[in-house]
Amino acid sequence: MNIYALSSGRGPSGIAIVRISGKDTLKICKNLTKLKEINSNEVNYCKFYDPKNDKVIDPEALLLWFRRPNSYTGEDLAEFQVHGSNAVINALLKVLSEQNNCKLAEPGEFTKIAFQNDKIDLLKAESIGDLIHAETELQRDQAVKLVQGNASNYYNDLREKLIKSLSYIEAKIDFAEDDLPEKILKEVHNSVKLIHKDILKIIENNKIGEKIRDGFRVSITGEVNAGKSSLLNLLAKRDVAIVSDEAGTTRDIIETYLNIDGYPVILADTAGIRKAKNEIEKKGISLALGKSKEADLNIVVIDNSSKNINSDIKKMINKDTIVLLNKSDVQDKQNHKFEADTVLVSVKENKNIDKLIKKIKQKLSKKFTSNDSVLITRERHRLRLNECLKEIDNFLKKDQKKDLELAAEDLRMATRHLGSIVGKVDVEEILGSIFKDFCIGK
Ligand SMILES: Nc1nc2c(ncn2[C@@H]2O[C@H](COP(=O)(O)OP(=O)(O)O)[C@@H](O)[C@H]2O)c(=O)[nH]1
Ligand SMILES: [Mg+2]
Predict the structure, then answer these.
(1) What is the pLDDT of residue 180?
(2) What's the pLDDT at 343?
(3) Which of 13, 145, 223, 276 is the most exposed place for a label (fewest CB within 10 A)?
(4) What is the distance in A from the centroid of ligand 2 to the CA of 398?
(5) Of all residues in the chain, what percent are helix, strand and coil, respectively (each to 5)?
(6) In DSSP terms, which residues pair with 103 in a beta bridge?
């Protein structure tokens, strides 16, 4: 089967790119362009026709053709660059649908084929998806690093070390009589212990990768009527939450996804904290308290002219929070002091909000120190690493002299879990490693 799809965004646009991949690609290209010769890895200037009636679909277009396996998918692949009107795109897609063995691609199918043909590994496939969906600078940076394969290399190295250890154990099982030195098992044990340490470090390393991909959770809490909903609206640049001088307006949690100066943030506006009588408001307050507990950062908003601050609010303030003293347009002298970073602002007059944004970025980057070896960007990776650790734990606990076969199985499972992160699961490799290191078939 050959697959095709519009790879650029929907028109109208100056140029649209339609892609086709599969073994009949060249034939279909010739059919649609009437070109006798199509050169690979070159720009071919052409017209596109509807072969049914020879009507021109686009009189001036370009065709790029890549011969397998040197293409994105690893199959024969072509890209058509045509004028980006809806009419041209639709006509071209229709003609493609009428070609033999040609179907519209599923989402991500080109990349899936690339994975199946070993052009890319699973981590790279995921990171290409991340790069396509990146909305902020941090997300783009992270995806670029992953596309370039740093994480894959790291996991592959770890996995090869595990396979090597496993191959020693397999050899010990298969050739028990041969005199493989006893100390080999000891060495294997030590090397697996080191791998355990490395994986533990990755897991314990902060969750920056997942946060950058999914967004940092920032919660706005504080006094009633302090301007929490106004702050959310200001940062979102639209009216997301209802703003009113009636206390207790916000009850549900209102969340919005924002790009705060390059930082992907899920900002939550919550009910103001006070002694509420109304059942619905009470529920809202308990939701607010819950939200602030699970947040990566809390912004506690207080009206700078408030006389007394509710004790529940005081309890929420610590060195990890940002206190936002609002309404400096009414009272411009800081009225309260806290053991926390404090910013005096006026949401109404958009005063000092830039200072708040700087503080938010500072706090988040301090809490989730970024480093170059970001490895976990998805829950999937974390789960697999945990499974791998469990198996290694089992292995380390066993008495290898007695349970060598079972210990080998633990390592085999650990290798499999680690391999599934990059998308490699292959027992043949273990055999390969044995042959390479022991020259068994000599
Ligand atoms: N003077 C002044 N009023 C503000 C400021 N920010 C919000 N308000 C007003 O305070 C009231 C409560 O605002 P709201 O955002 O609903 O507060 P919330 O209850 O904390 O969500 C509204 O009347 C807002 O217009 C500010 O910076 N200065
Ligand atoms: Mg509100």
Answers:
(1) 65
(2) 97
(3) 13
(4) 58
(5) 45, 20, 35
(6) 3
Atom of ligand 1 nearest to the CA of 244: 16
Residue 353 alpha carbon to ligand 2 centre in Å: 18
> To which H or E segment does residue 283 belong?
helix 279-294
Domain ranges of the chain: 2-116, 150-205+376-438, 217-303+311-316+335-352
CA distances from 7 to 4, 21, 25, 49, 410 (A): 9, 12, 16, 20, 44
Q: How far is the CA of 235 from the centre of ligand 1 (A)?
A: 14
Fold for domain 217-303+311-316+335-352?
Rossmann fold (3.40.50)
293 CB-side CA count, 13 A? 6
Which residues have C-beta atoms less than 6 Å from ligand 1? 224-230, 243-245, 249-250, 272, 326-327, 329-330, 346-348
Report pLDDT for 170: 87
Rounded distance from Cα 332 to ligand 2 centre (Å): 22
Low-confidence ranges of the chain (pLDDT < 70): 176-180, 206, 369-374, 425-442
In the prediction, which pLDDT does 441 show?
A: 34
What 3-state class would DSSP assign to 296?
Answer: coil
The pLDDT value recorded for residue 431 is 47
User: What are residue 283's DSSP bridge partners?
Assistant: none
**Residue pLDDT, tens place only, 47-95:** 999 999 999 999 999 999 999 999 999 999 999 999 999 999 999 999 9
Out of 220, 243, 249, 303, give the residue to mutate to test ligand 1, the one with the largest number of ligand atoms within 8 Å of its CB: 243
Q: What are phi and psi of 373, to 5 degrees?
A: -105, 50
